[in-house]
Amino acid sequence: MRVKRFLSILGCIAVLGVGAPLAHADPTAQWPNSGSYDPPEAVMLRTLQQVVPPEVLQQTPVQLQPFDADTYLVSHPRLFWPVDQAPNAQFVAQQLANHGPGWGATVANGPRGFGAYLTYDPATYGMPQTGLLSTVQQILPRDWLQQTPMQLQQLDADTFLLDHPGLFWPVDQAPSAQAAVQQLASQIPNLHTTVLNGPQGFGIYLTYDTTNYSAVQPGQPGLLPAVQQILPVEVLQQTPLQFQSLDGGAYLVSHPGLFWPVEQAAAAQAIIQQLASQTPGWSSTVTNGPQGYGIYAIYQSVSTAASQTGPLLAIQQVIPAAVLQQTPLQLQSLDGSTYLVSHPDLFWPVTQAATAQSVVQQLSSRTRGWGATVYNGSQGYGIYLTYRPVA
Questions:
Q1: Contact assessment for residue 332 and residue 236, using Cβ atoms and an 8 Å cutoff
Q2: Is the per-residue pLDDT at 69 higher than 90?
Q3: What is the C-alpha separation between 73 and 150, in angstroms, rounded?
Q4: Domains of the chain, residue spans
Q5: How many helices and strands (H and E) does the chain possess?
Q6: What is the pLDDT of residues 352-390, one digit of tens each?
Q7: Is-above-0.90 flag for pTM?
Q8: Distance between CA atoms of 250 and 276, rounded to whole angstroms?
Q9: Residue range 289-326, pLDDT digits in tens
Q10: Using CA atoms, how far apart are residues 141 and 145, in angstroms rounded to an integer?
Q11: Is 242 helix (H, G, I), strand (E, B) or coil?
């Protein structure tokens, strides 16, 4: 079967482990959507917003319940009609079908009682990618979903919370949530985790992004995508990048893979030129730095669209350059698109989630891609910032 992202937020949002951060944007904002990865469920959720405004979806989740074969019953107060209004349901289904295939209407005894519901069949896309619904069924069997529908609650412009008892873990069961998302992420890269005081209580939930940032990231300029052309994700997972503030908005970039003895100046220059071809602002210097005496890469936050929306300029809103000169900022890859940000001034015990949340919101006012995660990192177990390069 080929089947292809809620609530008033009662607490703070933090993304767990390999989770991706939530961009705390105005839910009515319309961010650009990725055309290179457009799974049926992403189209479905974006299309629903043609009928049900995002602010309504934040208050009342949409429910998806397996109906038959590849078809799901779509349940929401604004998408339910008495039997004698079934033609209205059919009209809305046809309206939604103008934005993508798979929509229909049926009369059934569903979560809202007996009446007319919308249906959605992601298999009509015939797409090769494994989708959200079929992927989730690796953890939640179909009969579980028939008994207890999965609810999708909008968190921001393109992120939805997956609400189901089988997709919820207490915070002290973070390794179990981590294992689940790692199992699923190989098939659907825009599935992540978040720590939230949500419908099941305070704990770990899955989230789904209708825009897959990692799909568009390699083709766009930016500091981190450029580095990934040189240092594979698995290398950055083992050894974080360090950024030490210098004068004039420049940063010393420290990593064993971006350090050369002085006699290897030609090799260093070749790598710097490769980085500069991806995004402006790269140069090199000879200094006695964290890796010892030799050649280091330098990144200058120049006035380009990429740098203006990058992490370093945003970080300077909360950490003065003088502090970053003394204690470098570390960025460690969590997956292909998300980085853990580590610094003593950007780390909080789990009891200080509200403080972390306020910093996330402050950074998000400057650039998208910020979130927070519960993680056992270089500062110990607690809340870290995360950053994901986005378009």
A1: yes
A2: no
A3: 11
A4: 40-214, 220-337
A5: 14, 20
A6: 888 888 888 888 777 777 878 778 889 998 888 888 776
A7: no
A8: 14
A9: 999 999 999 998 754 434 445 788 888 888 988 899 99
A10: 7
A11: strand
